[in-house]
Amino acid sequence: MSTTARHPLGTDRVPVGPGMSMFDPMFIGIDEFGQHVSLDIVFHNLLTAGEPGAGKSGLLNNVAATAALCDNTRLVLFDGKWVELGPYIDIADEFVGDDIEKGLSILRRLLTVARNRYLWLLANRRRKIAREDNLSTIVTIIDELAMYLKVLGTKEQQAEFESLLRGLVSIGRACGMPVVAATQRPSWDIIAASLRDLFGYRCAFRCTTVGSSDVILGSGWADLGYSASDIDMENRGAAWLLGEGTVPKRIKVAYLTDADIYAIADYAAWLRRPNHGTPANFTVPAARLDWEMAA
Ligand SMILES: Nc1ncnc2c1ncn2[C@@H]1O[C@H](COP(=O)(O)OP(=O)(O)OP(=O)(O)O)[C@@H](O)[C@H]1O
């Protein structure tokens, strides 16, 4: 883990999760040879799916817990069931439960932030953000996509949700705003191929059919022997992980118990408490706050 992260305010604050940065590789488990598997989430979206109880929440929790402990990282959480990402509710910039209208409003805001960031990049003659920019990473995590695309709200709201999500997944990753999404219904009506292909990482936990495995990984992988329908029912947390330009890799996701998750979330909330490590007489410059609001 890096120890170079500095707080954007340039003060001697103790950074959140001392030294942890979203720009470092994010550990999520091991592969079949026992080697560590890490993701580069800042610049990649992650889509995960599998039948109920296959272990998706374990992966989402690895991402959420790491992000919660990282310096200069903000969480935007969507969880129609409330309890999967609920432990992080106190440290999330926004938490959307089963209110789709709130979800739409937050996705619109995220797209505005992404647009502002691109204008900033353009003004600085750049195409993507870097660690040194000290721009916060905004990680959007959606547990159970199907809730927002098929269950909650009207057909119009669901269609708008999909279109805004598609926008964020398309443009977020180069400006430090990755999306991590999960569903237990890997079918074409939930994840169209054109949406799936915008996710650089795809992780298929056990699926009931070869077809649903291909919905996540991409057509043709099952024929080549990479099918999540072959994963043993009892082997929870096992999955096929596909990264850009690679073949799927068999992994076992690191497991966090409920007690672990709440302990990490509580620790992250403690680290992120207002004025943590800030001298009593220090005030945040107003201009800096305005800038952070927009970016
Ligand atoms: N990596 C893992 N190692 C060991 N056991 C695991 C792992 N992941 C999950 N499990 C076991 O499987 C159970 C279900 O896992 P989890 O809640 O992550 O599944 P899920 O796919 O998210 O289910 P749902 O779609 O219903 O939310 C866990 O309570 C745990 O007992």
From TrEMBL:
GO terms for molecular function: ATP binding; DNA binding. PROSITE patterns: FTSK. It comes from Actinoplanes cyaneus. It holds the Pfam family FtsK_SpoIIIE. Keywords: ATP-binding, Nucleotide-binding. This is FtsK domain-containing protein. Residues 34-214 form the FtsK domain. ATP binds at residues 50-57. Coiled coil: none annotated. The keyword Nucleotide-binding applies. InterPro entries: FtsK/SpoIIIE/SftA, FtsK_dom, P-loop_NTPase.
